[in-house]
Amino acid sequence: MDESSSPAAESPAVLRQAGLLEKFHIIRSSISFYNNVIVSASYSSPNPLSPDRLIRALHTVLSAHPSLSVGIQLSEESTGTPSFIRLPSINFNKSEKFIIWESSSTSPGHAKEYKDLLCRLHNTPFANEDLTTLPLWRIGVLKRSYNTPTAHDSETNSEGRIDYEIAFSVHHAIADGLSCAAFHYSLVNALNSVDETSGSEVNWDIYTPPKDLKLLPSMDEVLDFGMGLKTAGKVAGFVGKSILPSFMHKTFWAAGKVPEKLSPTKIDVLTFEPYVLESLIKTLRAKKVSLTAFLTYAVANSLFSIMKTLEKDEFAKIKYVKVSVPMSYRKNAGWDNTVMSDFVGAINWDIAKFKSLEGEVSGMKKLTAELKKESTVTRDSEVGLIALVGDLAGFFKGQVGKDRELTFEVSNLGVLDPGKIGDLKKKEQEKEQENKQEKEGGEGSKTATKESEGWKIEEALFSQSASVPGPAFSVNAVTVNGSMRIVVQWMEGVFKDDVMEALVKSLNSSLPDFSK
């Protein structure tokens, strides 16, 4: 009998109370207004991935990241603060509740099946009744098939390697996008270190977190989110909305009213090959514009273009759009990108309707400067405003039926660390060194061969579920091995599918066109 099912099992140990942003995410999820964050990576290996190998690797990952072994204890009072608890154990015999195994039916159908898997994960909430017994994460594994000259569908790619999409879906209270990347750094390393011939005496079906498990402190414990004159101005602005006549308000268009409940998340995916991204980055550097700032204006440009064509009545209503641009506070706390926690802030940025993307370089430069400035300070940030809200559940529900406050969000995860995912150039160098050693009769070639044939990550996708009171849609980018992939996400019913599909096509052409 495992620890979690024993009648004599002790009550879960409370580790600490949730911080401001963690509480925000917990309450929003507990009322089914938001579900999760996902970073999915394309893994490649010379050998198949067995459940046993994955579970053994997960033991290593769980040991490295305490937040993966916690649950949530909700407060009995609506205005109370939830707490994080130590899960007594994680039972992999019940892994069907948090690990999905699938295989592509055909090679041509893989892309659709991949998107379907991500949507299913995004549309699966962390149920309140499971918060104290199941981990706050899920994994989806999709084995890829390939067309080859000798067979319609093959298990291996042209290099004889087997490919898997491994999606990590997590409660936003314990992880941000960079935390999801940290999970994959740990997992690919653990998969390369697993020895399935040893450890037969270990019960790998049960992972028991250490009794002295400790979480990192919350963001507001280590950073200053105090409120000064700037915050006072924001509060005054919120109050002003309720007392000023409508003609004095800045008119933001955000695709209508906040709905009553969460509808299914839908996604589409864009891929920009290294030569396209290299050319774009070169152009942006010459203009002193960051990639995140450019993406923000490129999305606005595509939105204006498509609404003008497909939704003329709505397009006429647009004067401004309001954009949320997240940023990381890890450096402020002295933590790198290998730890898992929720350390993000965001700025809101107004963009007036414009006619051409090329004419908005000045706005891009201003946003670039603003992001750089705001990422260095936490005082007067948006996170601090959460402290002003006593009843978060009431705050969220109170937005239903009102105008949405955000048009879209652009979140750029950046470049996954090549040294932590199996860098292709590094592998080529190792292969050259191996060949040199073989010719010279040197030692160590076997180690180099093993390393070059191990698990590695080729691509990644970053996405998040729809949010009832949040932006009407979101755009999430991540770059791996020089290739940038973008996930565009929207909630069913907020935008018509044909509008979002047209927006994706417009965005697909505007990025390479800008650098011509």
In short:
This protein is α+β, with helices and mostly antiparallel strands. Helices cover 35% and strands 22% of the residues. Helix 2 packs across helix 4 (177-193), helix 8 (291-310) crosses helix 11 and helix 8 packs across helix 15 (497-514).
Word description of this protein:
- The structure is a single chain.
- The protein is α+β, with helices and mostly antiparallel strands.
- The protein folds into two domains: 13-214 and 416-458, Chloramphenicol acetyltransferase-like domain (Chloramphenicol Acetyltransferase); 226-412 and 469-514, Chloramphenicol Acetyltransferase.
- 35% of the residues lie in helices and 22% in strands.
- The protein has helices spanning 20-30, 51-64, 110-122, 177-193, 219-222, 229-243, 274-287, 291-310, 312-317, 330-333, 361-374, 392-397, 424-440, 445-452, 497-514; strands at 13-17, 37-45, 70-73, 83-86, 90-91, 99-103, 137-143, 146-148, 151-154, 162-170, 206-207, 265-272, 320-328, 344-352, 408-415, 456-464, 473-480, 483-491.
- The strands form five sheets. It has a six-stranded mixed beta sheet with strand order 12-18-17-15-13-14, sandwiched between helices. A five-stranded mixed beta sheet has the order 6-7-10-2-16, sandwiched between helices.
- β6, α3 (110-122) and β7 (137-143) form a beta-alpha-beta unit.
- The protein starts with 12 loop residues before the first strand and ends with a helix.
- Mean pLDDT is 88; it is low at 1-8, 235-249 and 442-452.
- One of its GO terms (molecular function) is N-acetyltransferase activity.
- It holds the Pfam family AATase.
- InterPro entries: Alcohol_O-acetyltransferase, Atf2/Sli1-like, CAT-like_dom_sf.
- Residues 424-452 are annotated as: Disordered.
- This is Alcohol acetyltransferase.
